[in-house]
Amino acid sequence: MPQWASGVAFVQVVAAETCTNSTFPVTIVDLVFSGLHRANASSVGECQQACCAESQCDVWQWADQPPASPINTCWLGPHGLKSTSQRGWSSRGRNQPVPSPPVPSPAPTPVPTFACTNQTFPVAYEGVMFSGLQQTIAKTLMDCQQACCADSTCAVWQWADQLPASPLHTCWHGSAEATRSPQPQTGWVSRGMAVPSTAHMKWMQQEVGAIGHFNMGTFQACGIGSTLMEGNTLGHPDFSVPSPETFAPTAIDTDAWIQALASFGVERAVLVVSHGCGFNTFPSRTKFEEFGFEYNYTVAQSPWKNGTGDIAAEFVASCKKYGVKPAFYHGAINNAYLHVVHGRVQEGPACPWCPDITQDQYTQVLTANLRQLWTDYGELVEVWFDGGFPQGAEQPITDLLAELQPNAVAFQGPGENPIRWCGTEGGHVTYPFWSTDKRRGLKGPGDPHGSVFVPGEADTCFQTGRGSDAESPYGGCWFYNHGMVPKSLDELVSSYHDTVGSNAFWLLDWTPMPNGTMRQDHVERYAELGDWLRSCYSIPVVSVHHPTSKLVTMKIPAHAQIDRIVLKEDQINGERAQSYTVMVDGVVLATGSSIGNKRIQLFNRTTGLELSVLVDGEAAASLISVEAFNCSQTPEPQGCSFVKSFKYKIVDEITIKTHTNSSSTACCADCRAESTCAVFVFESGKCTLLSANQGGDAAEGVLSGSPRGHNGQLLI
Asked: What's this model's pTM, rounded to 2 decimal places?
């Protein structure tokens, strides 16, 4: 609308000579002038006549129809006024209007810049076109990549670089749900992030699981000559394959197993149905007449239930009863019964009644056992390959997994849902701990620029200490040992924080007694752990869900205190957060890097008005939630559990480091300081740190131990 001063009187029309359109030869289209004054006129003709009557009037306008307004009003003015575009006006002038300077287009909303490079999108696609992408405004290939970085829902981008890709020089973005076209097409430059599968997402969100060892090692050591493959007989250098009659439980109660695990929040449980000895706790039907083979080293040949029992079936039934998802560990790399050591079949049978087979025949036997295991017991959420695959067996197992259990995550295994070993059995992973890595088959903390989404699992023992030399069948901690004790609550809580709270999946061991039941102090400690976790993490002091900014602020309730914060990242389009800062009233309390599925950041108890969390990275991250809690005081375990006159097995694959001129106290401290250390050996001033517990033997003058154990108590 033309601008005029409030309160200015209408101009009185003075009689003048009659003027026509020739007096105002310039027709003005779709413009409205500023600085006009209103004239008293009731028609277009009167408006033009009024302009003729004014010596200074060069242009007139009549508000003919909206959006011109007020409708049917007349406006007059001199030459040289500014104008803007607007329809609805009838306008003429004596001279051409002065062109108004172009109105600048509004500046585009700046896109946040991130330090993203090809490393941010480590997966390069060759000859691939995706469907389900949306076109995004970008002038160059690098603009296309930068825009994907700025969008937390973008997991893959494509740039139409040359024909036949089209339209040329266009940018396309998509989420993890984008699908590859079945037909290859050249001309596209495409990169993406490593993204999780649906099975990965479910596994990570469950956070806590358990692995149970109840097999031949529960009753007797098993091995070949000096090579221990399952269990440990203290002081006996020669091992053999125990007869199946050795496996003789009397009161197996799988319901009690699962109830104990559920008490501390387990949602999936892995049962070891075949370990290094090769004894199967399910009745294998594997038989090959062509080379005279039958797998007769199972519960079917044991005295339990007169050979009619099936522990795997009872386990799965109990899992379903108590809402826990079942999973199986079936050893592949070692099998004493079949004389397989480190994936290779050795020459000759392992015992007088053991079979004698070839490498190719072992692959057939192994895959037949797995086919039965992955078929008979329904859907499994996880399958374990401890140590990888035997020679020649990887592809047949990969195909079998895709056929029978495509939705199971595979520990150190093949398929679309691989998960990796964290690199230690100590229960404390190295932080930062990432969900991605450079390739499959690696262990340890992962890599923030990894091209494979392969999150990590942290398996650790529940027992600590050791039993007496005379009565204990096993010097390690994975199978039941009546002389061992449950780890302290302090240690278990600390392990939870250092695994689940560092973006790892926590897999805690359970160890039934030889009769098949759970020891009472084990059951009580599991329940105690569950009570502690629920009391700490059930009700946050303050929380925000699905925040939309990388800076999240929350008001702390009056008089409330907090001592930890829990961050959860939405990784559906890749793990993107690479740093975070926690502040209260602007004072930095803590910083960190990886978040992933869950990051629990502990700090000294504090209070204040406002809690802030800043999350950053090379690409925009999306958080599921930010929660602050007050759990009063989280105990930090002190000292180590020591074992006198005992030496854990030392092999290169699990040796972290060795140094001399040490002491038992220094060796303990070194192991505690090394996050991957599970156990240590101190002998003649030499300290050896080990990442895994593979059992051991009695050894006079040797002191062994584990970090953060049973409150530093010396067990002798």
From this structure: 0.77
